[in-house]
Amino acid sequence: MKITLFGVRGSLATPTPKADQKEKQLKILKMAREEWAKNPETFSEEDFLANLPIPLSQDLGGNTTCVYLEGDNGEKLIFDMGTGIRVLGNQLAPLAFSGEELELNILVSHTHWDHIQGWPFFKPAYSPSCKINFYSAIPNLEERMVRQQHPENFPITFDQMASKKSFHLWKEFDSYMLGGLKIIPFGLRHPGSCTGYRVKEGDKVFLFCTDVEYREEDREHLLKLKPQIAGADLIIIDAQYSSAEAEKKIGWGHTAVGKAVDFAEMMEIRSVVLTHHEPDHTDNEIVKIILDESKILKHDRMQIHIAHEGQKFIV
């Protein structure tokens, strides 16, 4: 499985402020000057840039949730339709408008705005040769998608988009096959309900778990789910808040960084990707919170990644 992140911001799409961009540029220039001064003859601009730490080396990105999974047999899965799906759609557009049929499968966690608002800007949805299958545990998903594009809200209705669309209702903890991928949907704690997905290909397992609010009182219940979750190769999980913020926002539906890491460790997951970044946090603040709370160096058996747009994983 090849997994690519197209949207990692939570709640609201968030462009990087000019002040933050300027601060990053100044830091990079100062660091470059210091490195050059050590040995001007051997200083390499390419090597310097390649070794910059996040977030200086890479903006985390301001698009809301969208994850793209490509199976070994060509299966194409899209998890959620935040604003990141527009960028994915631009990449898929040449295939979608080539005249040959393109089949895409969209797995929907829930329909809060930040997880569906990119759909009307998804170019393949306007191609008559594109077949799009929607999968979720939401009985009236089609109605919700149509409502989003009511003429009061958007100039093009859902039905005017030329792609062939179908809706499929899944039950939590039942298993389903999409090509060679075995998928199990499961419930997550989040206002209005939300669904996570377990995807297995061969002996490899990927988990998509956003949005979710993991609390200490959930531990006993989650341990009962351990046979379904334990030992996964990769999890993408909501980690929107610092611990202090999470205490003030109980019931808002999102997890503190430390709790997300604790969950992944409890479930013996090999690699955890912390995502759904708080829109009011700068990239520097996000990185600091994650480094402070995850205590990366103490998790020898688990890799911890700070999600950023364009990031790729092979599972």
Write up what this structure looks like.
The protein is an alpha/beta fold. It has helices at 18-38, 45-50, 84-96, 141-148, 219-224, 226-229, 243-248, 257-266, 283-294; strands at 2-7, 66-70, 76-79, 102-107, 130-136, 164-169, 176-178, 181-188, 194-201, 204-209, 234-238, 271-275, 303-306, 312-314. A seven-stranded mixed beta sheet has the order 6-5-4-3-2-1-14, with helices on one face. A seven-stranded mixed beta sheet has the order 7-8-9-10-11-12-13, with helices on one face. Strand 7 and strand 8 (181-188) form a beta hairpin.
Topology, element by element:
Elements: E1 2-7, H1 18-38, H2 45-50, E2 66-70, E3 76-79, H3 84-96, E4 102-107, E5 130-136, H4 141-148, E6 164-169, E7 176-178, E8 181-188, E9 194-201, E10 204-209, H5 219-224, H6 226-229, E11 234-238, H7 243-248, H8 257-266, E12 271-275, H9 283-294, E13 303-306, E14 312-314
Parallel strand pairs: 3-4, 4-5, 5-6, 10-11, 11-12, 12-13
Antiparallel strand pairs: 1-2, 1-14, 2-3, 7-8, 8-9, 9-10
